[in-house]
From TrEMBL:
Catalytic activity: [E2 ubiquitin-conjugating enzyme]-S-ubiquitinyl-L-cysteine + [acceptor protein]-L-lysine = [E2 ubiquitin-conjugating enzyme]-L-cysteine + [acceptor protein]-N(6)-ubiquitinyl-L-lysine
Pathway: Protein modification; protein ubiquitination
Domain annotation RING-type: ranges: 99-306
Protein name, UniProt field: RBR-type E3 ubiquitin transferase
Originating species: Caenorhabditis brenneri (Nematode worm)
Source lineage: Eukaryota, Metazoa, Ecdysozoa, Nematoda, Chromadorea
Family: Belongs to the RBR family. Ariadne subfamily.
Amino acid sequence: MSSDEAENLYSDGSEAQEEIEVDDYKILDTASIESTMKKQIGEIEILLGVSEGVGRLLLQAHKWNKDSITDKFYDSPDRDTFLIESNIIPTDPQPFEEGEAECEICCETTELVGLDCNHRSCKECWKAYLTEKIKDGQSEIECMDSKCKLLLKDAKVIEYLSNDAKLIQSYRRLILDKYVQSNMFLCWCPGADCGRAVKSSYGDSQLITCQCGTKFCFKCSNEWHEPVSCHHMRLWVKKCGQNSETANWILKNTKDCPKCLAQIEKNGGCNYIRCTNPACGFQFCWICLKAWSVHAQAWYNCNSFDQAAEKTREKFRTNLDRYIFYYNRYNGHRDSLKLESKLIRKVEQQMQRMQARGMSFTEVQFLRTAVDTLRICRETMMFTYVFAYYLEKNNHSLIFESNQKDLEMATETLSGYLEQDLQTEDLSKLKQNVQDKCAYVERRRKQLMDHCAEGDEKGHWAFSE
């Protein structure tokens, strides 16, 4: 490999642009990340006296923790022992056999190439093997021999890819992905075709606004979900995927087997039901849910309301009902956000009319600010219902619900005003009303968020799973 190829082992040669720093995080382009990674690799290679490519394998194995590598290195009897234990060099290096021979993979007689372990194959078989590993997302690739754990150095991988530019680029991308994924202070922007990464000062949940316009949580890379934790947001997304499309249908069209609680759908006119659970098979009446044998007795009145039985059935439906309660409110605000473009068009038309009546472009921006404020408050309201779903009841949760109610009312008041009351002749009064409502809803949102943050700090919240 030439010196130029070695220089570009981990990059395509593009120059790093200026890092964009925002508050306590930085926006990095791909070239900047590559430059930082190469610097770390170079430092460890100089420190340990190893060749290019070895440093990257060692750093990846130790999650890019330089101290972890050096501690293990100095604890080893010698450098070779350390590299053998890291699967960088073989335990018993074999002299490489030169010349043509039969490839054990494809049975073609041709020039064979291989590693220091002397496991050899033809270049085409090596390329096919490496291609599959790269497609599987592996950037640390072991020898082709199934019993050998020796890792291929990055320079060797690129050599065996036979100048296939697309494959080499995929391999470099994998290396960069593993570097970012292994670093708790780095994450990729989830925006479509963005290619930028974010470097956080403390590597925890925080709102990130990328240059591409994508807003997301640094810790989980999902949309920003304050005040919900990443853990509960993952649980909620999973639960919605399982329940949201079927929950309403289940409530309307099924009943629980009185014995095993399996959900039963009635698909005929007869009220005689046999549980479809093979382990149960309980026979009961669809109307009163009593055993059919009891229901058939002359003394039993199916038309008599059994309050105790009804309470038992309600108990088993409580969790589903509770989920639907919070899901409907969560989804209501999400649906409203989807209609934001319609409100924006309406507001922009009003802004144009106001400019036609003598107001400047700057003066009418209060309306666009109001739409942005409304969007932020709806996003907050949406996630407060996820927060509330997992929140256990106590005195602090009652205060939360009160603050949530206030923000809900303020948000709907602002929304209604923007939707219905913009057509007025008194532009000064309109501006004052909109600004007053925006200021109030922002105060209510801050009050709610501050209370949630205070609850986290002081341990006031208790959550269910």
